[in-house]
DNA sequence: GCGCTACTACACTGCACGGTGTAGTGTGCT
DNA sequence: AGCACACTACACCGTGCAGTGTAGTAGCGC
């Protein structure tokens, strides 16, 4: 008995669900709390999504799709049409790492996915952001600005260099870091990347 | 009414608790299941540890202490008394990354800590393994084998370079990787590190 | 044997929570 | 007005589970 309902209400439910799941984790999160947060009756949630599990998966999928778009936009505005390569990579990494360290939705969702990976195998999809980044690195390689024989691997390392230390020190967003520390770590990460992959 | 009991029984309980917590996560894990796994009555668990939360924290602390010792031993047998630096770092990274990628206890516990970080702030202690690694890098710096002005930061990056891609691709141990892929990623990570910090 | 301690087996309480059923209300369409 | 539909409010069921209380047993020192 799944009602399709209005897109606005679906969005409200999914947003509320994400918030509660992120704060509590899947098992602790209560559907009553989600309903209250969404300003919707519990019954409506069940009419829309059937059960808690489907609601969870929908919330994750919806949000991840938004993140991919944001990531694509960030790539366009920092790495495409680059003049100063180090600066471009730094600006890219800065935004990315700052999201990570500020207990932002992005990292929390990663944390949630890691936590629930064993219980929801469907969460372990591919990682489109890495391939999007790899495409850019390959383009920079063709333009002679980088020496990147394996763009996918290089994208993996760039991502790790730029976000890894920030993730570790912030415990995946659970402890906030100040911007100076983030900037410093990102700067160092970019330098390391260029030392290895620069011309 | 906390009984101190026998060390052997405490160990059995903690081991069983860890197993169930790792498999199920904190909220889903049932004390009955832990009791069954430990071959002990539920009542005994409560007599020993008081409540589920304390049992959880004890299980984490106990296991982490063991890991620190193991890490220290690994450092000694790979990085101390080094002749071929790249090879030494590779051997170090290989063991470390393999643990990570094989869904081993070590990563699962990290995953669990990440998942529960928000609910158990006491889990977010310092990270003694990083400082242990930093000490070694500083020694290599003094011996003129590396150029490491900030050993703590360098240790952060070495750790990230060696384990990051493996963690990402294996979804923190949820998906096993084959040894060739691990070796390749570790090799690349070490080369990047040396490109940035080598003499 | 006696007493003490550690432990088990098990029944039980209280509660939180997933999920359902239903009566009633608001809104918009014809 | 009358109908259809979306939604809410709320009561309700079943269950799983943290935590407790207790009676009984096995072992051990004396």
Automatic annotation (TrEMBL), chains A, B:
InterPro entries: Homeodomain-like_sf (IPR009057), HTH-type_TetR-like_transc_reg (IPR050109), HTH_TetR (IPR001647), Tet_transcr_reg_TetR-rel_C_sf (IPR036271), TetR_C_Proteobacteria (IPR039536). Residues 7-67 form the HTH tetR-type domain. GO terms for biological process: negative regulation of DNA-templated transcription. GO terms for molecular function: DNA-binding transcription factor activity; transcription cis-regulatory region binding. Gene3D superfamilies: Tetracycline Repressor, domain 2. It comes from the Bacteria. Keywords: DNA-binding, Transcription, Transcription regulation. Residues 30-49 bind DNA. The keyword Transcription applies. The keyword Ion transport does not apply. This is TetR family transcriptional regulator. It comes from Kribbella capetownensis.
